[in-house]
Write a structure and sequence with these properties.
TIM Barrel, alpha/beta, globular, 42% helix, 253 residues, single chain
Length: 253
């Protein structure tokens, strides 16, 4: 069994063949798929999709790249969804300082407010972190939440250790499959195995064998096999450990 801890199965890129994508994932042994929201106007669609597909569970949040179009009232809407739907996490939330046209102040405002909601509802968080690791860690130390996952982790070993101290797991996926991703591959090989969870971020971050094509949750077994090779341990041990880690940090799955 495998758990995809980060997959946008609700994305429009799956509209044409979502049934087949989900079936392929199940056939490959992916029995749980965590589907995080990115904006409040997609909450109902996400709810409908996870209800339709067995093994899928929802997280609700406002992605940092969507805060420019968000309204301040969206935080109140998010609160109502967290209270009513009891999702597995608040997400996808965080900071993205990679984009050049972002609004760092508005991103931080929404991130902080969503951390407060996670703390209030005692929910873990699914973090989007790009070129903002230290800033995210600063807020996590200030506003303590029940752990979560640093999705698509790409920081240093020291930063990884800081996330782990705060009760977080680190998400590894398609980027780890590229031979040139030396830092990510080194971290995947050396970090405590119990700190690692697997993810696809489908339809994004395709593994090397897709040559830039659409990613899908059914790719997770091959991603797990790469981690198995990097660590020199059986694939079954990778599957068991990553599932245990995912359930520890996301008890709702």
């Amino acid at each position: 069994m495998l758990i995809d801890t980060h997959c946008h199965l609700d994305a429009a890129g799956f509209d044409a063949d979502r049934d087949a994508v989900h079936a392929a994932a199940l056939a490959g042994g992916v029995e749980r798929i965590v589907v995080p929201a990115v904006a409040v106007d997609g909450f109902f669609r996400l709810k409908t999709i996870v209800a339709r597909y067995p093994g899928c569970v929802a997280a609700y949040g406002i992605h940092p790249l969507y805060v420019k179009q968000a309204q301040d009232g969206d935080l109140a809407l998010l609160r109502s969804w967290l209270e009513r739907e009891q999702p597995v996490a608040v997400g996808e939330i965080g900071l993205d300082h990679y984009v050049t046209d972002g609004d760092p102040q508005r991103q931080e405002y929404f991130f902080v407010e969503q951390l407060k909601l996670a703390r209030e509802f005692k929910l873990p968080v699914l973090l989007h972190v790009r070129r903002a690791v230290d800033q995210v860690l600063k807020q996590l130390r200030r506003i303590q939440v029940p752990g979560g996952i640093a999705h698509a982790f790409n920081g240093s070993r020291q930063q990884a250790d800081e996330f782990i101290k705060l009760g977080f797991k680190l998400g590894f996926g398609g980027s780890m499959t590229f031979s040139g991703s030396s830092r990510i591959r080194a971290l995947a090989a050396e970090l405590p195995l119990e700190a690692i969870v697997l993810e696809t971020d489908a339809p994004d971050i395709p593994p090397v064998w897709l040559a830039g094509g659409r990613n899908a949750p059914g790719e997770l077994p091959r991603i797990a096999a790469v981690l198995s090779e990097l660590r020199g341990i059986p694939a079954g041990e990778i599957a068991s450990s990553s599932c245990l880690a995912a359930r520890m940090v996301l008890p709702g799955i």
